[in-house]
């Protein structure tokens, strides 16, 4: 039952609302109750072929050889597709918005990086014929050491998971191995605090488990086009990705979507459409590529696991004066959307509270797990769970009512947020008051009287006069992350990352040192302290190299793309 | 592979098709007959979205050998309405917002129909029991339970 508390913020809102607060029928409801809603698989084609993949049984292995000769002779088999058949066999989803390096093949070529990674695709008359043929494919794997834990993955000497990012961390702003947030001086404030409260929070990956599994059907259309029925939640991502990986212009692709049997974020990865179209191109027949439930659970990208360390500096009266985050997102073997989730999550810190000193280092870490992707509020949900668990921990540590602690530290209209935007339309105080009332949880009368509209702004609207900044995590020799660039690998004069295998076909940066500030590890230095080798990719060679010390403060970044503003 | 002739009633009209031996009823209905209302959710009997009625009893069509419905009567959501006249359950699902993505809906409707056909005024617990084999990832079930109860209360008349 929805209850509208119209007494709150009454003057901010036109109350003659026509739709809000009243039930409205879905426009597709009649189709749903008559069984006529057209999901991707509800399109029948004569001569439909099916596509299934041979998948890696290993977390991490080099592919020595693949023998498909017997599979190709199996009854009903129309085509066996290998990595070399994919026109552009390397992609990252967000290259379409110029964020991140291409790092994931459609079909694994030189190595597999997670259990279930597709290696060979078989197109056949029935799914059963696909499976029978797959059983005849021989792959000779050389099993490699694997890493499944985010903090293990960034230690020196950890197995290198993703050839595009050999230190197992995504590259932010073309130069850092983590996403930074600096607001005020956290370390100084922690020294002044009456209490320092630390916490470690870990969430597990979560499968979206839509009732309809992911899939697509691609069929030849007139005029050399392809029609594609898909379960995608992101029609234009899928269209752009297919055009890019298949090297066809997008006007040859006629995508039809919009009827999705549940998605929850798990249907944005654009896995099925390019593969189904490729099968269609190679056979000239309609091809259906859909996951069964086991594949959906095993290789469907989940909400990634996150690990958060939070350190709060708290005064005796309950004011939180400093909050420090160190976060690790488990991206799995490839980037997909975790890099973006971190940008979004960092903009949310320190949660809906006004804290004058905040710092955060968040790492997008590659491990030999299933790649992670979007799911309902991703980037926010995990850290909010951590923040709110930590608020309870702080309350119990200093002996304060946990709802009063939240109200006291709540952001209010006009407050400066750590990402340097003013807070507006805040309502945490009111939410806490209603929760306390509903839960019959006693709060003091002064807390009942507080309001999001009062007490904000003024001093609280100011960006701290001093913000402590640093160059920690600078990656030497990094190239630009723009889609379309093919940066040359930078080869340092003294190799400092011995476990990085060479994958010459993949554009890569080579880091100066390991990502982990472990004792004994070589110290990170700013890139420009080292002589610039001629092989370093330089997008604007006519401009003189600027020493890093003279650059604008590192806290200036585009919150959408994660790239430096140009 | 050898094909086998199968004859059965689907929503009251006779069907005769050839199916590969060992095919499941879900595939035969969808790809053989062209009734796309039952859905594939798991193919292993865990989600219920493929539920159809065989002689009035709910069955998971993904786990039903097609040849076992020889001479039997099969009902699906495609046959629930009478022409333009929706079934009471369909009206109640609409009125109670009992579908979001709609993918579980055909299976839910069939499970609910089996219940109401044998027990026109079920308790809430009986409704929950009747749809307990059907997974919905969107609605949280409450609207579905309310819809089935509303359909029962209408006795089919309100919507008749
Ligand atoms: S598809 Fe039959 S129970 Fe899931
Ligand atoms: S409405 Fe989406 S699964 Fe039930």
UniProtKB/TrEMBL annotation, chain A:
Key words, A-Z: Molybdenum, Oxidoreductase
Keyword NAD: no
Biased composition annotated in UniProt, kind: Polar residues: 556-566
Aldehyde oxidase/xanthine dehydrogenase a/b hammerhead domain segment(s): 34-145
Comp. bias regions, Low complexity: 491-518, 528-540
Chain intervals for the UniProt region annotation (Disordered): 472-566
Annotated InterPro entries: Ald_Oxase/Xan_DH_a/b, Ald_Oxase/Xan_DH_a/b_sf, Ald_Oxase/xanthine_DH-like, AldOxase/xan_DH_MoCoBD1, AldOxase/xan_DH_Mopterin-bd_sf
SMART domains (UniProt xref): Ald_Xan_dh_C
Family matches, as Pfam families: Ald_Xan_dh_C, MoCoBD_1
One MF annotation (Gene Ontology) recorded for this entry: iron ion binding
PANTHER family: ALDEHYDE OXIDASE 1-RELATED, XANTHINE DEHYDROGENASE
Protein name (Swiss-Prot/TrEMBL): Xanthine dehydrogenase family protein molybdopterin-binding subunit
TrEMBL record, chain B:
The protein's name: Ferredoxin
PROSITE patterns assigned: 2FE2S_FER_1, 2FE2S_FER_2
UniProt cross-references to Pfam families, sorted A to Z: Fer2, Fer2_2
Keywords: 2Fe-2S, Iron, Iron-sulfur, Metal-binding, Oxidoreductase
Highest rank taxon of the organism: Bacteria
Any GO molecular function: oxidoreductase activity
Boundaries of every 2Fe-2S ferredoxin-type domain copy: 4-80
SUPFAM superfamilies referenced in this protein's UniProt entry, alphabetically: 2Fe-2S ferredoxin-like, CO dehydrogenase ISP C-domain like
Residue stretches spanning the membrane: none
């Amino acid at each position: 039952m929805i209850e509208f508390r119209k007494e709150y913020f009454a003057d901010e809102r036109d109350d003659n609302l026509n739709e809000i607060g009243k039930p409205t029928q879905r426009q597709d409801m009649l189709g749903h109750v008559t069984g006529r809603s057209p999901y991707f698989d509800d399109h029948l084609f004569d001569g439909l072929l099916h596509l299934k993949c041979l998948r890696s049984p290993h977390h991490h292995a080099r592919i020595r050889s693949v023998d498909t000769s017997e599979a190709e002779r199996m009854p009903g088999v129309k085509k066996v597709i290998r990595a070399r058949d994919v026109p552009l066999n390397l992609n990252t989803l967000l290259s379409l918005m110029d964020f991140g390096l291409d790092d994931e093949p459609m079909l694994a070529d030189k190595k597999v990086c997670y259990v279930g990674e597709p290696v060979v695709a078989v197109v056949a008359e029935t799914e059963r014929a696909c499976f029978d043929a797959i059983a005849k494919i021989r792959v000779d794997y050389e099993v490699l050491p694997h890493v499944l834990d985010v903090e293990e993955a960034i230690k020196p000497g950890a197995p290198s998971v993703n050839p595009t990012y050999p230190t197992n961390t995504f590259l932010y702003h073309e130069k850092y191995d983590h996403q930074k947030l600096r607001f005020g001086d956290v370390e100084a404030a922690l020294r002044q605090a009456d209490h320092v409260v630390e916490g470690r929070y870990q969430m597990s990956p979560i499968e979206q488990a839509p009732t309809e599994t992911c899939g697509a059907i691609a069929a030849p259309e007139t005029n050399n086009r392809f029609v594609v029925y898909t379960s995608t939640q992101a029609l234009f991502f899928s269209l752009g990705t297919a055009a890019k990986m298949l090297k066809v212009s997008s006007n040859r692709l006629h995508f039809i979507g919009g009827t999705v049997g549940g998605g929850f974020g798990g249907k944005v990865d654009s896995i099925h459409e390019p593969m189904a179209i490729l099968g269609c191109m190679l056979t000239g027949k309609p091809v259906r590529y859909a996951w069964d439930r086991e594949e959906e659970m095993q290789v469907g990208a989940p909400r990634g696991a996150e690990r958060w360390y939070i350190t709060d500096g708290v005064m005796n009266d309950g004011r939180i004066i400093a909050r420090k985050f160190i976060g690790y997102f488990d991206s799995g073997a490839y980037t997909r959307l975790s890099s973006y989730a971190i940008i979004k999550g960092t903009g949310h810190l320190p949660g809906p509270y006004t804290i004058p000193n905040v710092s955060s280092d968040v790492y997008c870490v590659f491990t030999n797990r299933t790649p992670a992707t979007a799911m309902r509020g991703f980037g926010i949900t995990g850290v909010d769970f951590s923040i709110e668990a930590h608020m309870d921990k702080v309350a119990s540590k200093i002996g304060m009512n946990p709802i009063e602690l939240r109200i006291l530290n709540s952001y209010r209209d006009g407050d400066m947020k750590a990402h340097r935007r003013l807070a507006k339309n805040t309502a945490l105080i009111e939410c806490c008051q209603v929760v306390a009332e509903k839960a019959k949880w006693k709060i003091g009368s002064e807390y009942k009287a507080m309001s999001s509209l009062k007490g904000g702004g003024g001093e609280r609207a100011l960006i701290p006069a001093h913000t402590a900044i640093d160059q920690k995590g600078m990656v030497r020799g990094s190239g630009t992350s723009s889609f379309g660039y093919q940066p040359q690998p930078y080869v340092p004069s003294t190799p400092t990352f011995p476990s990085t295998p060479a994958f010459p076909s993949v554009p890569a940066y080579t880091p100066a040192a390991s990502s982990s500030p472990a004792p004994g590890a070589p110290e990170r230095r700013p890139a420009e302290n080292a002589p610039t080798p001629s092989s370093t990719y330089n997008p604007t060679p006519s401009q003189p190299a600027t020493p890093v010390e003279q650059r604008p403060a590192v806290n200036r970044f585009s919150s959408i793309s994660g790239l430096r503003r140009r | 592979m050898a094909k086998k002739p199968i004859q059965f009633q689907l929503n009251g009209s006779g069907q005769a098709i050839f199916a590969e031996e060992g095919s499941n009823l879900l595939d035969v209905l969808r790809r053989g007959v062209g009734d796309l209302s039952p859905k594939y959710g798991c193919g292993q009997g865990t989600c219920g979205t493929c539920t159809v009625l065989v002689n009035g009893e709910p069955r998971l069509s993904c786990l039903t050998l097609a040849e076992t419905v020889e001479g039997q009567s099969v009902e699906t959501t495609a046959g629930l309405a009478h022409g333009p006249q929706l079934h009471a359950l369909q009206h109640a699902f609409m009125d109670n917002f009992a579908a979001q993505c709609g993918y579980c809906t055909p299976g839910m409707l069939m499970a609910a129909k089996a219940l109401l056909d044998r027990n026109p005024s079920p308790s809430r617990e009986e409704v929950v029991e009747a749809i307990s084999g059907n997974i919905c990832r969107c609605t949280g079930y409450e609207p579905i339970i309310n819809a089935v109860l509303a359909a029962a209360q209408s006795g089919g008349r309100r919507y008749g």
